[in-house]
């Protein structure tokens, strides 16, 4: 994705555009970046450009999948500002066929965003962040990182940009992380266990329990502390950083009942009701409780399924006749509704 910092997923290119009149500083190229066309599978790359004025501005982060395969699951983006800049409000600018959350550090200088959805090769997403700056624009550096468990090319997952006349230092690509141990390895199925993992090169880490992101994550270079989500049975514990990913040597065992299932999904509209027998066209569905869902046409899963709480997008598979369109989530499957049918033509 390409992340543009004004944010991005698969090879990311980030461009930070801060409204103003100061001449933009040229973006630093990713260190040791490889040609995206040579990366087989998901890939994320990141770059930044900036334009800063006193008192306020905007940071636009754009991410575009540039590998040869979909980028799926959780993607984490971090953005570090100089001490004289702080984050304000944030806004995503397209259809919300994904889930999105973010945290801002208490001092207002660091943003950690979590995007969970599917991005097709070439697909771009944009996050706009309002920022406040000092009354003058002293020299400083903005650093952005991107992490996804399927990323095949960590060499382009970190970038820097200089502002206020500062020359951007070369981005430092972190080493492959390692996880050497965990202080606890079992907890209630409802979640809530606070787990500390030890290892190396864990900074800017995202912690996953069986693929589900943990909350309240704080990582240094040698440890990560995180609150486990709910789950069932033994699951692997993974730390994903801009330098790669690593698993804990022991699984985490959930004991007792799992958390309640999420509410059952439902559909209220189908934006595209027909298309060619060969498939390949985009389809959009709206409803409730759709997050993380898989779109089905008849008994065929649609490609590129990506669902937010109330909207799904997918690519129609090949087929014939008229079929029911449904969405499967952890909460169940949407009921068959006559209005939610798709007809193959030709």
Automatic annotation (TrEMBL):
Residues 177-254 form the IPT/TIG domain. Residues 1-19 form the signal peptide. The keyword Plastid does not apply. The keyword RNA-binding does not apply. SUPFAM superfamilies: E set domains. One of its GO terms (biological process) is carbohydrate metabolic process. Keywords: Signal. This is IPT/TIG domain-containing protein. It comes from Kitasatospora viridis.
């Amino acid at each position: 994705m390409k992340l543009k910092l004004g944010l991005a997923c698969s090879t990311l290119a980030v461009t930070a555009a801060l409204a103003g009149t100061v001449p933009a500083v040229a973006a630093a190229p990713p260190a040791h970046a490889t040609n995206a066309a040579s990366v087989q599978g998901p890939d994320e790359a990141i770059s930044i450009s900036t334009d800063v004025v006193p008192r306020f501005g905007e940071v636009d982060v754009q991410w575009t999948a540039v590998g040869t395969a979909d980028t799926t699951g959780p993607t984490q983006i971090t953005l570090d500002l100089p001490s004289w800049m702080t984050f304000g409000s944030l806004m995503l600018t397209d259809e919300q066929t994904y889930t999105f959350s973010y945290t801002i550090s208490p001092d207002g200088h660091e943003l950690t965003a979590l995007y969970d959805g599917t991005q097709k090769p070439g697909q771009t997403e944009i996050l706009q962040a309002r920022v406040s700056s000092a009354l003058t624009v002293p020299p400083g550096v903005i650093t952005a990182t991107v992490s996804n468990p399927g990323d095949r090319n960590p060499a382009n997952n970190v970038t820097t940009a200089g502002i206020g006349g500062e020359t951007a230092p070369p981005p430092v690509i972190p080493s492959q992380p390692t996880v050497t141990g965990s202080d606890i390895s079992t907890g209630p199925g409802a979640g809530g266990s606070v787990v500390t993992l030890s290892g190396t090169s864990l900074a800017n880490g995202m912690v996953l329990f069986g693929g589900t992101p943990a909350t309240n994550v704080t990582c240094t270079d040698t440890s990560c502390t995180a609150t486990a989500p709910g789950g069932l049975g033994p699951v692997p514990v993974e730390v994903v950083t801009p330098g790669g990913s690593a698993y804990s040597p022991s699984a985490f065992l959930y004991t007792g009942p799992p958390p309640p299932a999420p509410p059952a999904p439902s559909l209220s509209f189908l934006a595209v009701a027909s298309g060619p027998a060969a498939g390949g066209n985009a389809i959009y569905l709206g409803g409730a409780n759709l997050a993380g869902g898989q779109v089905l046409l008849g008994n065929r899963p649609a490609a590129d399924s990506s669902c937010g709480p109330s909207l799904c997008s997918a690519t129609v598979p090949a087929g014939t006749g008229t079929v029911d369109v449904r969405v499967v989530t952890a909460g169940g499957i949407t009921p068959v509704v006559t209005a939610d049918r798709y007809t193959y033509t030709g």
